[in-house]
Amino acid sequence: MPKSQIDQIDRKILTRLQKDGRIANNDLAEAVGLSPSPCLRRVKALEESGLIRTYVALVDPAMVELPVNVFVSVTLEKQVEERLDSFEAAIRQRPEVLECYLMTGEADYLLRVVVPDLAAYEQFLKTHLTRIAGVASIKSSFALKQVRYETALPLHHLAV
Amino acid sequence: MPKSQIDQIDRKILTRLQKDGRIANNDLAEAVGLSPSPCLRRVKALEESGLIRTYVALVDPAMVELPVNVFVSVTLEKQVEERLDSFEAAIRQRPEVLECYLMTGEADYLLRVVVPDLAAYEQFLKTHLTRIAGVASIKSSFALKQVRYETALPLHHLAV
DNA sequence: GCCTTATTAGCATAATCTGCCAAAATCATA
DNA sequence: TATGATTTTGGCAGATTATGCTAATAAGGC
User: Fold this and answer.
1) Residue A17 belongs to domain spanning
2) CB–CB of A97/A140 below 8 Å?
3) Inter-chain CB proximity A71 and B101 less than 8 Å
């Protein structure tokens, strides 16, 4: 891979698009100090390289009645590769699981689950999580408040 | 507030925009079964109500050299309101902290921190996290792999 | 210093957005 | 069930924005 060298202008573009994914190309161009044409070319290149994965709308969780964040530590019975894959496949089916990480240390997986209320979480546990083959133990931790939620990655370390 | 009643069409719009924030209004309108004009009107209303918070570009963490996810459990010395606020203010200053939750149970806060490598995480710990006033204990858990990362909230429960 | 290559600016065309008005649908009330 | 008021919709027109093309500029190698 030729690494395609992300320069300062690309970094500015990414930082801006991570904040406002719908900024008009003209405005983006002005913000990064280019004319619209080469600016658009760079954006397209970043999209095609896969560096920009996608554009999304972010919805306010409270306003769609999803105020409850639960972090779930899951341990599997045996760490067989096959089991990991089937667990991950099962997790990917559930839309309320917004994040899932394979972890070092005690637990095998850490999930972030979003639900309308505790009843819905209980439902999720009983109907789905405990029914996944190989799940040995589950520990739930509830968030009282979402203090911060960012999707923009910090790009300072790319400065050349 | 009259609650403005989210109907099935709004739900379709939100679901679509959560997947593709840059879809053309014409295409969105067709997808949800409206003509462009009322579709755009609904989108604007959703934006102005704050239900759609913003639009962002999602960047691939690996491609910008940010492969390391760390979950950090932080306990404060005393749970004084003032301390919580100052801790949260300090956390909001750090761009590598993408998520922060006030938790029930043992730890006070759970953070998700994204860094290029372990050295950068050590730097973050020593230079920033341990220097925040009131921090009593820190426990770091490293993710081996990001199995799933979604920004789209599940909206099935809004079905009327 | 010259030539090659890559990147840029500006313009013209095409696509898209968005406000306005009449028509259709919905709803409450009698 | 009929009626009228209110809300929502569809289609059109003007304005904005995106995007491909070409020439000019800048960067890099020899």
Assistant:
1) 8-57
2) no
3) yes
